[in-house]
From TrEMBL:
InterPro entries (alphabetical): NAD(P)-bd_dom_sf, NAD(P)-dependent_oxidoreduct
A Gene Ontology cellular-component term: cytoplasm
GO molecular function: aldehyde dehydrogenase (NAD+) activity
This protein's name: NAD(P)-binding domain-containing protein
Length: 367
């Protein structure tokens, strides 16, 4: 009997990239993907010819989440975890009730778990390693609440792993979230400023992970889980891969925000039909913006609700703080390999296309 997978976030930027390679690698899997709309369900059916079952629902459908998790052997959650506490509780509760001998939960967190007191004038330089530093991650940072929930859910039968990406950049087959999550805001501020920009001098170093590299990390976790399910040997569950210590940073490239903007982002804009967004294409220079200016600028794109305001600040702080992580755990225990760099052209092209479809309006508030 084929193993059953319950997939949350399958239509998102990361989830769609993973679902594509997961279906190709394991066509025998029984995959149920929760989707929020009939159009998402249609896209899943068209992409996978009925071999992935779309299920209408949301992260607020707690009974549905609990039921589906209770029937699965592997649950993959690629949805953003901010505000997911109750939905996550339902998923973990369902897994605890499952009759399967071995159950696996793969959770998506984020490397902003490492952020402490964002201050663009002192961006910090600590490098966080996912083998040696799991126990010292800040307990009050973003993602901490859900991370701790997942780490506490491990039992003799339920095994968890947390994937914690840095800034995700690259190519995704998603129909609704083709640009990486940070890019619409980044490009909105770029267009408003009319140039490349940084918060303060831009000396803060940050880590990027390519979308396809990240999807392959998840795939390796699924591969390991399937080998244990098929083998049925409890001793095969390695604590380095599953359990409270199983925390996997995703990283492909580390670079300062100023260097990334000057040497990578501005040339990519020119190559992909958006050089007119900045002065003289590649040669427009870099504006040093204040954090609050960037927050206000992003808010003009996402709206003024309380949730949007919190998200705007979170994204803006990310552009001004160091986020230096090393994914040694995936490389050492799963054989994870990464590419030489991130697929920046694809990310820019997808964002340019989305802005054109939306009409291309922008408020120039970041002068």
């Amino acid at each position: 009997m084929a193993a059953r997978v319950f997939f949350v976030g399958a239509t998102g930027h990361i989830g769609a990239a993973l679902l594509e390679i997961l279906r190709a690698a394991y066509p025998e899997l029984s995959i149920v993907a929760i989707v929020r709309s009939s159009s998402d369900a249609k896209a899943i059916n068209e992409a996978y010819n009925g071999t992935v079952e779309p299920l209408l629902g949301s992260l607020d459908d707690f009974l549905l989440l609990k039921k589906q998790a209770s029937e699965a052997q592997i649950v993959i959650n690629c949805a953003p975890d901010m505000g997911l506490d109750l939905g996550l509780s339902a998923i973990l509760s369902g897994l605890s009730l499952s009759g399967h001998d071995r159950r696996f939960y793969i959770h998506t967190s984020g490397a902003s778990r490492t952020w402490v007191a964002p201050d663009p004038t002192h961006p910090g330089s600590r490098i966080w390693h996912d083998i040696t530093d799991v126990r010292s991650l800040p307990p009050t940072a973003t993602h901490a609440v859900t991370d701790i929930m997942v780490q506490s859910a491990n039992t003799a039968s339920v095994h968890t792993a947390i994937v914690s990406p840095s800034f995700v950049v690259g190519k995704s087959p998603s129909k609704t979230h083709k640009p990486p999550i940070i890019f619409p805001d980044w490009m909105h501020v770029t267009r408003a400023a009319g140039s490349g920009w940084t918060i303060g001098p831009g000396a803060n170093h940050t880590t990027f992970v390519d979308t396809q590299d990240l999807a392959n990390l998840y795939l390796l976790l699924v591969k390991d889980a399937l080998s244990i399910i098929r083998d049925g040997e409890p001793a095969a569950v390695r604590p380095e891969v599953w359990g409270p210590e199983a925390y996997f940073f995703g990283d492909t490239l580390e670079i300062s925000l100023r260097e990334f903007t000057e040497k990578h982002l501005l040339p990519a804009l020119k190559r992909n039909g958006a050089g007119h967004w900045v002065q003289d294409g590649e040669g427009g220079g870099i504006k040093e913006l204040m954090l609050e200016d960037v927050v206000d600028c992003i808010m003009t794109r996402v709206g003024g609700t309380e949730g949007a305001n919190l998200w705007s600040r979170h994204i803006a702080e990310g552009f001004g703080i160091s986020m230096r992580v090393r994914g040694r755990r995936g490389r050492e225990y799963l054989g994870w390999k990464t590419s030489d760099g991130v697929d920046l052209d694809e990310a820019v092209r997808a964002t340019v296309d989305e802005i054109k479809r939306a009409g291309g309006g922008v408020n120039s508030v970041c002068e």
